[in-house]
Amino acid sequence: MRNRSLLVGSVSIGGNSPVRVESMLKVPLCRLEEGMKQLDDLARSGCELVRVAFPSASDQENFSRLVKDSPVSVMADIHFDPSLAEAAIAAGCRAIRINPGNMGSPEKLDRLIAMSKDEGVVIRIGANSGSVSPRQLKEAGGDRPAALALAVEEQLRALEDRGFQDILLSAKSTDVRETVAANKILFDKYGKIYPFHIGITESGSGIAGVSKSSVGLGILLSMGIGDTIRVSLSDNPEIEVAAGFEILKSLGLRQRGAEIISCPTCGRKKLDVVAVLPEIRPLLEGLPDGFKVAIMGCEVNGPQEARHADVGVAGSYSEAIFFKKGEVVDRRPLSELVKGMSLLLEPYRLKS
């Protein structure tokens, strides 16, 4: 076991658990029905933990209903009000994100920690580059990653001094190198004790945002750092979850659903891969996790180069060539490509 194993609802984090994929509800609690719809969508996308901003006592009733009915384990996001953290726990929420230094007084933090112990609550603490103080930066000798790590450690000490250990650590920056360096400092000290949540904060949107997050998360995960991840995008949260699973899939850490292997195409192509992909993707529903389907533009990139795929299709001069593990099993006119692929995949579908 690498570190402490935590439990949020039915979701285990750390220890021997797989790296979990999480997101954040992007709908305010005052729009409860819309928020519940987003939670349902997140559950279908595979999201395993969702952080929910709980900014006001006026949201308490809606937050309680959300926790009760959510199909995904919930973590309450609390910034300055310990009474809201207590209300979240009373509502049945078994994970909270707090900054211990913002909880008003040592006495209020004592009470919150005692309640968290009694109810089996996981506390996520951490810092981002924007919350590093001038004092911390000075103590770190101007080294920003070291200052970010120091900010996390100061919060950690506040919990450890109270005998609390069900902690999830997090250090984030919008700068990839700063995030990696800060997490390395913390991991070297605490990686065998506490699980880590990792992400690149405010990474943007679209290709730029996914690329930035992929680089940062990929480096950290390759170093063995990270027990939960979030791809923080200015986008639909389902996109965050999909990107998270693709990052884990590319590193061989998780598999969710089938995987398409497709060539980038070139002047040799006999099959328009870009046009065919949207027709093939719906056929992947119901296939086992990790099942590989190759779509290749020509016979050069076909059966041999994609022989590691479970099944595949490649374009030839006048037909589509279908193969399993590199062995050709069928040939059809290009007009029958989708039909042929459907027949090829049918025996592999999981029975409901």
From TrEMBL:
It catalyses: (2E)-4-hydroxy-3-methylbut-2-enyl diphosphate + oxidized [flavodoxin] + H2O + 2 H(+) = 2-C-methyl-D-erythritol 2,4-cyclic diphosphate + reduced [flavodoxin]. Pathway: Isoprenoid biosynthesis; isopentenyl diphosphate biosynthesis via DXP pathway; isopentenyl diphosphate from 1-deoxy-D-xylulose 5-phosphate: step 5/6. InterPro entries: Dihydropteroate_synth-like_sf, IspG_bac-typ, IspG_C, IspG_TIM, NO2/SO3_Rdtase_4Fe4S_sf. Residues 259-341 form the IspG C-terminal domain. Its cofactor is [4Fe-4S] cluster. Residues 4-244 form the IspG TIM-barrel domain. One of its GO terms (molecular function) is 4-hydroxy-3-methylbut-2-enyl-diphosphate synthase activity (flavodoxin). Its EC number is 1.17.7.3. GO terms for biological process: isopentenyl diphosphate biosynthetic process, methylerythritol 4-phosphate pathway; terpenoid biosynthetic process. Pfam families: GcpE, GcpE_C. [4Fe-4S] cluster binds at C263, C266, C298, E305. Keywords: 4Fe-4S, Iron, Iron-sulfur, Isoprene biosynthesis, Metal-binding, Oxidoreductase. The keyword Cytoplasm does not apply. Binds 1 [4Fe-4S] cluster. PANTHER family: 4-HYDROXY-3-METHYLBUT-2-EN-1-YL DIPHOSPHATE SYNTHASE, 4-HYDROXY-3-METHYLBUT-2-EN-1-YL DIPHOSPHATE SYNTHASE (FERREDOXIN), CHLOROPLASTIC. Belongs to the IspG family. This is 4-hydroxy-3-methylbut-2-en-1-yl diphosphate synthase (flavodoxin). The gene is ispG.
